[in-house]
Amino acid sequence: MYLYNLTLQRPTAVFQSISGNFSGTKVVEILLNHGRALELLRYDEDGKIESILYTEVFGIIRSIIPFRLTSGTKDYIIVGSDSGRVVILEYNPLKNQFDKVHQETFGRTGCRRIIPGQYLAVDPKGRAFMIGAIEKQKLVYILNRDSTAKLTISSPLEAHKAHTIVFSMCGVDVGFENPIFATISVDYSDDGDLDDVQEQHKKKMLTFYELDLGLNNVVRKWSDEVDYSANIVMTVPGGTEGPGGVLICSENYIAYKNQGHPEKRAQIPRRMGTDPDKGLMIISHSSHKQKGMFFFLVQSEVGDLYKITLDYQGEIVNQVVISYFDTIPVANCITVLKNGFLFAASEFGNHGLYFFKGLGDNEDTLIEAEGQQWFEERGELKHLELTSSIGSLVPVLDYKVLDLVQEENPQMYALCGTSKNSSLKVLRYGLPVNQMAETPLPGVPSGIWTLPKTNLSPDEQQSDKFIIVSFVGTTSVLRIGDNIEEDHDSGILETTTTLLIRPLGQDAILQVYSNGIRHIKADKRINEWRAPGRKSVLHATSNQTQVVLALSGGELIYFELDQAGNLSEVMKKDMRRDISCIEISPIPKGRILSRFLAVSDWEGPVRVLSLDRDNCLSQVSMFDTDKVQIESLSIVDMPIQEAGVDNTRQNAQQHRGAAATLNIPSTLFLFIGLKNGVLKRAIIDSLTGELSDVRTRFLGRKPVRFFRIKVKGNNALLALSSRVWLNYSYQGKLEMTPLSIEPLDNASSFSSDQCSEGVVATVQNNLKIFTLDKLGENFNQISVPLQCSPKRFIIHPQTNYMVVLESETNYNTEDLNLTELNRKLAADNGNSNNDDQDDMEFDEKTNNKKNKKIYKPKAGKGMWRSFIRIMDPVSYQTLDLIQLDDNEAAFNLTTCTFANDTDIYLAVSAGVDVELNPKKFTASTINLYKFTDNGTKLQLVYKTEIEDICYALTAFQNRLAAGVGKSLRLFEMGKKKLLRKCETKSIPCTIVNIHTMGDRLVVGDIQESIHFVKYKRSENMLYVFADDTVPRYITSSTILDYDTVAGCDKFGNVFVVRLPQNVSEEVEEDPTGSKLRFETGLLNGAPHKLEHIAQFYVGDMVNTITKASLTYGGPEVLLYTTLTGAIGALVPFTSREDVDFFSTLEMQLRAEHPPLCGRDHLAYRSYYFPVKNVIDGDLCEQYLSLDPIKQRAIAEELSRSPAEVLKKLEDLRSQKLL
Question: Which residues form the RSE1/DDB1/CPSF1 second beta-propeller domain (predicted)?
Answer without folding.
Answer: 435-772
